[in-house]
């Protein structure tokens, strides 16, 4: 393993601070600093950016971000056992790392940061999906963050970047792709983590677009898409019956055959359909 900083190897950090992985906190650690440095490079040049890292654990990714040159990192970690290890990293990078002990679902640390902001996290999957949804639906667009670099179960990552025509395509794809460029930057086998999870993982990189790809009211789009995919095997004229009595006319007016299923409908067409409700 090449040296990215003067701190001890992560296996030693874990032994010193007795950081046995807790399943309840979704702890699957990345101990290879070459790998964490590689993940930290995915958002690009961070030297003029503040980074929010959620769930730093023993700090592998944190060290990647700092050694890679991030202007400043704010890390929020729920497990108090990790704080001494993170304090050692803060000492090695004076004035550049601040750690908050807390639950990322309960506190919003974005207000503590100075834009431009990149968000980077290797989190438990359920927490990651919940936070992604929140970050993708702020009250105003563009959001305060410029990019999100997040680890997911590979199957979830595939749902984020999915195109129409397959099982993976649904609400998550539409929510993500409407206002960001989303791509899978890296896939990782279970063995990359300690302990290994059951399935493969993938890092998704999402860059905020300055404006939505196609105009639509966010609430209307969300409602239509949720209805359409809640009954994804039904034809849209049936799945969206409750949305408006004249739904068939609306579908036809934007070029969607009423017999089509949600899975076949492009993001652009969903936006056009949403606009028929806000005229
Ligand atoms: N980032 C580290 C790495 O890559 O090795 C740790 C990854 S581990 C998958 C997830 C981390 O998120 C753990 O350190 C866990 O304690 C922390 N965590 C879990 N739920 C959290 C929450 N709601 N808020 C903040 N941190 C959380």
From TrEMBL:
Cellular component GO terms held in the UniProt record: cytosol
Residues annotated as binding S-adenosyl-L-methionine: 28, 30, 55, 77, 103, 122
Alphabetical list of Pfam families matching this protein: RrnaAD
Matching SUPFAM superfamilies: S-adenosyl-L-methionine-dependent methyltransferases
Gene3D superfamilies the record matches: Ribosomal RNA adenine dimethylase-like, domain 2, Vaccinia Virus protein VP39
GO MF, one example: RNA binding
InterPro entries recorded: KsgA/Erm (IPR001737), rRNA_Ade_diMease-like_C (IPR023165), rRNA_Ade_Mease_Trfase_CS (IPR020596), rRNA_Ade_methylase_Trfase_N (IPR020598), rRNA_adenine_dimethylase (IPR011530), SAM-dependent_MTases_sf (IPR029063)
Source superkingdom: Bacteria
UniProt keyword list: Cytoplasm, Methyltransferase, RNA-binding, rRNA processing, S-adenosyl-L-methionine, Transferase
EC number: 2.1.1.182
Acetylation in keyword set: no
Reactions mediated catalytically: adenosine(1518)/adenosine(1519) in 16S rRNA + 4 S-adenosyl-L-methionine = N(6)-dimethyladenosine(1518)/N(6)-dimethyladenosine(1519) in 16S rRNA + 4 S-adenosyl-L-homocysteine + 4 H(+)
Compartments where found: Cytoplasm
Record-annotated Ribosomal RNA adenine methylase transferase N-terminal domain positions: 35-210
UniProt similarity note: Belongs to the class I-like SAM-binding methyltransferase superfamily. rRNA adenine N(6)-methyltransferase family. RsmA subfamily.
Role according to the record: Specifically dimethylates two adjacent adenosines (A1518 and A1519) in the loop of a conserved hairpin near the 3'-end of 16S rRNA in the 30S particle. May play a critical role in biogenesis of 30S subunits.
Name of this chain's protein: Ribosomal RNA small subunit methyltransferase A
UniProt organism field: Sagittula stellata (strain ATCC 700073 / DSM 11524 / E-37)
Gene name per UniProt: rsmA
């Amino acid at each position: 393993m090449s040296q990215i900083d003067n701190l001890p190897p992560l296996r030693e950090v874990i032994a010193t601070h007795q950081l046995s992985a807790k399943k309840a906190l979704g702890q699957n650690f990345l101990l290879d600093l070459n790998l964490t440095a590689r993940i930290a490079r995915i958002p690009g040049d961070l030297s003029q950016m503040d980074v929010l890292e959620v769930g730093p654990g023993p700090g592998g990714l944190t060290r990647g971000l700092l050694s890679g040159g991030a202007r400043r990192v704010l890390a929020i970690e729920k497990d108090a056992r990790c704080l001494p290890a993170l304090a050692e990293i803060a000492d090695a990078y004076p004035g550049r790392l601040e750690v908050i002990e807390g639950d990322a679902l309960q506190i919003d640390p974005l207000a503590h940061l100075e834009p431009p902001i990149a968000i980077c996290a290797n989190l438990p999957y359920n927490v990651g999906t919940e936070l992604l949804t929140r970050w993708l639906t702020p009250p105003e667009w563009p959001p305060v963050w410029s990019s999100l670099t997040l680890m997911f179960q590979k199957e979830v990552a595939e749902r984020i970047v999915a195109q129409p025509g397959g099982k993976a395509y649904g609400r998550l794809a539409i929510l993500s792709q409407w206002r960001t460029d989303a791509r899978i930057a890296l896939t990782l086998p279970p063995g990359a983590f300690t302990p290994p999870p059951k399935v493969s993982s993938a890092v998704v990189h999402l860059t905020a677009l300055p404006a939505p790809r196609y105009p639509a009211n966010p609430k209307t789009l969300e409602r239509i898409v949720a209805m359409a995919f809640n009954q994804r095997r039904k034809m849209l004229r049936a799945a969206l019956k409750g949305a408006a009595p004249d739904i068939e006319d609306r579908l036809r007016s934007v070029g969607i055959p009423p017999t089509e299923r949600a899975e076949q409908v492009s993001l652009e067409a969903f936006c056009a359909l949403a606009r028929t409700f806000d005229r």
